[in-house]
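Attaching the record inline, Q. Sequence:
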Amino acid sequence: MDLEAVRTFLAVVDSGRFRQAADELSITQQAVSKRVAALEKDLGVRLLTRTAGGARVTIDGQAFLPHARALLRAEARAVASVRPGRRALRVDVLGRRLAPAALLRDFHRTHPEIELDVVTLFDAEAAVAALRAGTVDASFRAVTMPGSRLPEGIEAVPVLDEPLQLLTGPAHALAGAREVTPARLVGHRIWVPGIVSGTEWAAYYADLAAEFGLAIEVTGPDFGTEPLLDTVADSPELATFVGARTRLVWPETHDLRRVAVHGPTPVYPHSLLWAVDNPHPALVSLREHLTTTPRARPPAAGIWTPSWARPRDRHP
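Structure, as predicted:
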């Protein structure tokens, strides 16, 4: 069985779209389709179907899914067994435009001798499973376990409290503001279509909305970042939230505005997770870099983060 085809199938499943899988694998969308088609021909079943919202896993695909993941875990263990200490450090960053990816880029600039393999897993559950299986060495996540501990064998350290910003189009009522308070956002429509029930970011936004009485809308399909920016740019009513370190590029005609939110500043609590029995020597360097590098942040007394966030050791 072609493991690259299996890897491609999983990339489509995890991202939900053939195009996004192609971007993550650095191949063309046509190549993704060919690999999946070849795997389906080899197995004699249909694994995925295309829909208006992306890719949907068939019943046969669901049956094959855990075995596909097991195949890649076995491959990773086989490779690691003959390259101890020499393989790339495999790190999950959730999204390549988000703050964790920026933190990892900073680490790479400081430690160019350490080879990195950057991946994007869907949610914390998938990340923890990958850490325990050894298919990734570390993962950036928000730890959402009120009153409970992380799974046995998994450790975490807080690495960044990232301030949220309001993103608006030029016709929005708050477009001209230099900063706003959470209280001032009450009554405004804030659209975050990427919220998925059961994820750590869904838990974050639910608590944020409840704490400040905000109307955070999740209606409609999530077509990705560019369509979201297009909609916000043209709307006098809709705005969205973005992290202060999220990298966004839009056409000059959009004239989008990033508005700081203070009084208090809502921050998203990023942590680094890893398996305690992972022997990769670069893990120590990554943790030390993330926990000792100075970063600008709001004063501790002026921030808000959910009650479920783990106790935070603030680093300067």
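The chain has a mean pLDDT of 88. The first strand starts at residue 48 and ends at 51.

More tomorrow.
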